[in-house]
């Protein structure tokens, strides 16, 4: 075979090979286009919630607040109740006579200070009660009133009973309850003696004050 013939054969083979490569290249390109990317194992960043979202989550997850406890109003039993005035305290008292001591106290108030203002009646009641605690007089209200020579309305050691329906008696009974229950402070709460303003016994006792038509001493 001559040199020119061999050259022609080599050229033909080269052209055929080049044509084959050209035919297969588009397929390779398409495969490259459809290939999936390979993961690089880098974790995706997590989304950080905003402050508003966090607060909203707290409101949803937080337990419900307990209901506010109802305020309880303490109801006083009467003895320690607060009154706007002595008149209000007197008006609030029931008229029932609880015991002999209360009855005696009301008798003393009635006969020694009926017609006096409420402050004056309370002051007389305080004197009687103070005597029961002083140690210088009988320890009971009835005993204080019945002590000889102390109260002019007492005759023969007997206490007269006021008319039950009299308004002044009902007031005296209510004042007696106020005084014994210590529901109102008297202006002469330390007094042990008293006399009417129109008399002058000449006592050398410490004067506490004057209430209504009586002057009080201790």
UniProtKB/TrEMBL annotation:
InterPro entries hit by this protein:
Cell_wall_hydrolase_SleB, SleB_dom1
Q: Which residues form the signal peptide?
A: 1-18
Highest taxon listed in the record's lineage: Bacteria
**Which one Pfam family would you cite for this protein?**
Hydrolase_2
Gene3D superfamilies noted in UniProt: Cell wall hydrolase SleB, domain 1
Annotated keywords: Hydrolase, Signal
The molecule here is called Cell wall hydrolase
Domain Cell wall hydrolase SleB residue range list: 115-217
**Gene Ontology MF, one:** hydrolase activity
